[in-house]
Amino acid sequence: MTKIVDPVRFSDHFGIDPRQLAAAGVLDPSLNADTGLFIDPLLMVGSQHDEVCVGALATYEAHFTTVIRLLRAAKAPGDVPWRNALRHMSFPEFRGTCLGYGGQSVSGSGSGNDMTGRLIETAKTIVDLGVDDPDLFVAMALFEEGFGPDRISDMTTNIILGDLLRFNERILAGLAVPCEMTTTQLRNGRTYEAALPVNPYVKGGAPIVLVPTDILRDLPIATDGSEVAEVASKNEEIRMRLNGQIAELWTRKTWQDKGKVRAWALSGKDAFETLLETVRAVRPESYDLAGDPRGEIFWRRIAATLADQEPFPMQVPPRLDMAGVVSVVAQIIEQFRFLIEDRRLSEELFHGGKPRPEKAAQRLFFAVAYAYCKANNLDLTPEAETGNGPVDFKVSVGFAARVLVEIKLSTNGKLVKGYTRQLEKYKTAEETLRGYYVVLDVGQMGEKGESLIAIRNAATSRGEAISEIFFVDGQRRTSASKL
Known about the structure:
Layout: H1 10-14, H2 18-23, E1 38-39, H3 50-73, H4 80-88, H5 113-128, H6 136-139, H7 149-172, E2 180-185, E3 191-196, E4 198-199, E5 206-207, E6 216-217, H8 225-234, H9 236-240, H10 244-247, H11 258-265, H12 269-281, H13 298-309, H14 322-342, E7 350-351, E8 354-355, H15 358-373, E9 379-385, E10 390-397, E11 401-409, H16 415-430, E12 434-441, H17 448-461, E13 468-473
Parallel strand pairs: 11-12, 12-13
Antiparallel strand pairs: 1-6, 2-3, 4-5, 7-8, 9-10, 10-11
Helix pairs in contact: 3-4, 3-7, 13-15, 14-15, 16-17
């Protein structure tokens, strides 16, 4: 279960202006919480950095050309070429980039022995079809179970780590960052030496490897089935190569069935090459860090700067018992409402005129709460594990004083159900008596607000304990200059 408690950005820790990193085309990672972005090998060819578009691309293609040669020579599982191919396909997780799905950590799982074995078996089948394109290993992510964005990112990082270190050597030369000579030995036996900054938030210390922003995506092309399906449905040349029955695979709904996609892709050389062409036809764009459409980055900036930009004299209760924690949480929610409605923080809820995902709104609340609670000795735990699934926030001091907060968008189709079931279950699991249900109205509220109020009123009239509801107007405001 992922948790974010006390995020520390690279720029904050080393005292660097974040704009300096942005100008260099480098991600400003959090050192103690993974960023939900991934290295996409299909973006390397368009990178502005020679270490990537020339060096890393050549390294990547040479690596998989070798694997293909070994698989072509393999006659049976376990023979020498097969074992050598397995060795080349061992991609342990590399935590130095601070990327992935981790929460209060920068560690992941990498590719284990079982996963590696399955990948080799599938790759052997594809090679035996006559396919010799190095990108076949990326395309496999569309139908191979467990081969998701974090695996692709781990795979690519392991292969091009030497080129990434050369990139870091150039970038770090222009930054006033202390570095130490480090030796990195991956579990597959490869060893690298480089002068790198050290991450003090990783147990035992670990080197930090900065990553170019132009090879990062929120989901690698080869794992985003919706984009691939859309390209297939709109690309006439590809459609002409698919008969009516197979064309059904390219709908967004059916594409989620990896078993059907796998059966088709492995049915022949033409089928797999069509798959490869479709993957490559997806527009190869890196993640828009400036616009941040999925809300992966913006909240970290707000968490670090909000208290200075919008000072909030919180009334700290004399005791941080249940009543004290409830008082603090109520103040945080009210300040959150004030910032959204009166300080135009509502702009952070949108990208391109459309609401960001609900997760982005939850992170925004975390940023606000974190900024104002840091000095008050409160344990603010997003996505705390309760045993029934993730609750958005748990604010607590010790065991006896715990308050839960759920953040929901009005666009959520399960808004009413979430109030009646989800939060009450979490309260039972956490043995707490107080909870808040914060609803951000970003449109499409309909009758959901009235339904929530009716449920709350009915429960109150029966004398039942039920979570308080806060409605926040998250609609975009007209700027002051236009009033």
